[in-house]
Amino acid sequence: MIAAAALLLHRRCTDAAGLVSALYDCARRRPREAGAVHALLVTSGALRSSPSALTALISAYSALSLPALALRALVASPLPPNLVSFNAAITALASHSLPSAALDLFRRLRRALPDEPPDAFSFPPVLRACADLPAPHAHLHLRALHALLLKSRLHRDLFVASALVRSYLRLRLPDDAAHLFDELPRRDVVLWNALLNGLAQLGRFGPALECFRRMLGAGVAPSKFTVTGILSVFTATADLGSGRKVHAFAVKAAHDREASVANALVDLYGKCHELGDATEVFASIADDDRDLFSWNSMLCALHYSADNVGVLRLLAHMRRSAIWPDAVTMAAVLPACAHMAALRLGREIHGFLVTSGMFGNNGGGSLDVFAANALEDMYAKSGALEDARRVFDRMPEHDSASWNIMIDGYASHGRGGEALRLFDRMTAVEKLAPDAVTLLGALTACSHAGMVEEGRALLRRMREEFAVEPEAEHYACAADMLGRAGRLEEAKQVAEKAGEAGAWRAYLAACRMHGEAGMAEEAARRMLGFEGAGSGGWVLLANAYGSAGSFEGLEEVRGEMRRRGVRKAAPGCSWVEVGAVAVGVDGAAAGEGRTVHVFVSGDREHPEMERIYQMLHGLVGRMRECGYVPDLNI
User: Fold this and answer.
1) Is the distance from CB of 139 to CB of 133 less than 8 angstroms?
2) From CA 563, how far away is CA 577, in angstroms rounded?
3) What are the angstrom distances between the C-alpha of 269 and each of 242, 294, 555?
4) Hey, how many other C-beta atoms are within 10 angstroms of the C-beta on 16?
5) Which of 221, 345, 388, 432 is surrounded by the fewest CB atoms within 10 Å?
6) C-alpha pair distances (Å), 414 with each of 190, 305, 449, 457, 551
7) What's the burial of 309, exposed, middle or buried (CB within 10 Å: 0-12/13-18/19+)?
8) Nearest to 138 by CA among 167, 114, 109
9) What is the structure's pLDDT at 621?
10) Dihedral sign from CA coordinates of 50, 54, 60, 63
11) Do residues 318 and 325 touch, judged by C-beta distance below 8 A?
């Protein structure tokens, strides 16, 4: 109260307009003094003498995210509110997700001012409120408002028409939006952007692209919002060539200096696996202009390119830049922890999610399902299944991925019984329909745990009960399950039924496992007919002939590999976490006892190479002393 009064005296306000301006400025810069500002308006008499004072007070409460007080100010006004004050209050309610209250106030406006009908500033917030209502009420209210606009002849006002088009699109009525758009006698860039961006957000990429072409044909100069909208289309359709053309246009029109456009370009290049271009665009954004979306787009670009170390380093850079991560950030970072088995950093991120309030004090909280799934997946892939299960149990809601991650986690670690119990809970208790991924996880659990009869029953239930057609992966898993159990004839029947390389590869591996060289050689010959067997399949063929002592067959496979240009796949890569990871969520840098060591087969670039190989040779020597003889054909 004292600060507000001091500001008024400093400005020497004598008229109502100056008083309202000073009070509004004070309330905006000192939100806690909003009540004092309101009191000064009452005691000064401004609310009794100036309708603009009431409008300014309502707008101030709206700017302070206090829509209830904005409505109370309107209702308790000593002067009868005018149309401008009603519009300000309706906007306050609609912009703060109070659609029913906004519509009720709009009805009150029509009753209170019968001689002053709603104008072009009354309808846009009400149309926005309609789009926030649950269906089917939203559709009914929106069509009623559209009819009222036709009656009042405001439907051709560009400001109102843009709001109406957006509302139809938000309610997933693109045909109505397009019909309204085509009937308008003139269209500005805002209206074109409303249709283009709305179609893009609905996934109607073909119509969105056609809208963009029509816009250019009409001679309308694209704005930065046009650029971001059409870039989202090319990003979703992975149309890198067209995206580059839009990038060139953005540079020519100087739109690339806008952070929103740069963010969209980073997203485009990242999702098209052009990491160099994404990094270049990200680096071109001024430090002060980088917002949370900028960082998230670059993190996702690194994630799409499997640069897991880069993801963790950028996270540390982001934290040092005082940018607060959100659930999207965590959903991009946690898979990097999972792929690198950086469990300690994953735990740090989990702790950060809890302390920041994003994941609640009990580990569930308000974190969105996508990010919670990423946390669950990180724990599962790192072998911390109990932690993964705690995250799963504390999630307020689950989608199919939540179940799939947990079932696959149990299956991958040989805990088939727990995987199947969770599968039964999903299907029998929760009454959720499993998808192909769920069923593959359950079959994998049966395979790894030797639960053959359960797996065979599950394969039958796929078609009969769940209406899911078995795919190549399911047949390969079934062949692997039967082969591990020594039921080679049944595994062969599954491979013949599947008619693809994966199932035969599983059958071949089972034959070699059980020392059936003749059956393995037969499987090897069958695999020669599959072009898509891949280098792994050819290596298995060569090993099968080698195990059977058929060196002619081995030479034949090697010659065929040379003729077809088949090369052995890239060597495997392993990570070893020592202490913690090189870059923590708190920004800790390498050299502080936080290290993840990356190894590639045959790699001699590691700075500790001499000591590592010395230790390795010692271990191999001890293994030989214990009688271990490696199987060089694996």
Assistant:
1) no
2) 42
3) 12, 13, 44
4) 20
5) 221
6) 57, 30, 6, 19, 36
7) middle
8) 167
9) 80
10) negative
11) yes
Q: Provide the β-strand partners of residue 594.
A: 579, 580
Sign of CA dihedral 603, 606, 611, 612: negative
Torsion of CA 73, 76, 80, 85, to 10 degrees: 10
pLDDT in tens, 11-45: 444 455 555 565 556 555 666 666 776 777 777 77
42 within 8 A of 76, measured Cβ to Cβ = no
311, burial (CB in 10 Å: exposed 0-12, middle 13-18, buried 19+): buried
Q: What is the DSSP letter of 602?
A: T
Going from N- to C-terminal start, the domains of the chain cover: 573-625
Structure-block tokens of residue 252? 């020519």
440-457 burial, b if ≥16 CB within 10 A, otherwise e?
Answer: bbbbbbbbbbebbebbbe
- Quick one: how far is CA 632 from the chain centroid? 43
Q: How far is CA 135 from the centre of its chain?
A: 25
Is the sign of the CA dihedral 392, 393, 395, 398 positive or negative? Answer: positive
Helix 205-217 / helix 189-201 crossing angle, nearest 10 deg: 160
Q: What is the pLDDT of residues 468-485, one digit of tens each?
A: 998 989 999 999 999 988
Residue at 212: amino acid letter: F
Which phi and psi (to 5°) does residue 150 adopt? Answer: -65, -40
Least confident range of 399-403, 410-414, 615-619: 615-619
CA distance 511 to 522: 10
Q: Per-residue pLDDT for 350 more than 60?
A: yes
CA–CA gap between residue 510 and residue 486 (Å, rounded):
8
Whether residue 307 has pLDDT greater than 60: yes
| C-beta separation of 190 from 222 below 8 A | no
- Which range among 5-9, 393-397, 525-529 shows the weakest confidence by mean pLDDT? 5-9
pTM greater than 0.85 (yes/no): no
Q: How far is the C-alpha of 567 from the C-alpha of 558, rounded, in Å?
A: 10
DSSP secondary structure string for all residues of 380-405: HHTT-HHHHHHHHHH-S---HHHHHH
Computed over every residue of the chain, the mean pLDDT equals 83
Separation of alpha carbons 26 and 23, rounded Å: 5
Q: What is the pLDDT of residues 64-89, one digit of tens each?
A: 888 998 899 898 888 888 999 999 99
Instruction: Round to whole Å and give the CA distance between 456 and 214.
Output: 56
Percentage above 90 pLDDT, the chain: 43
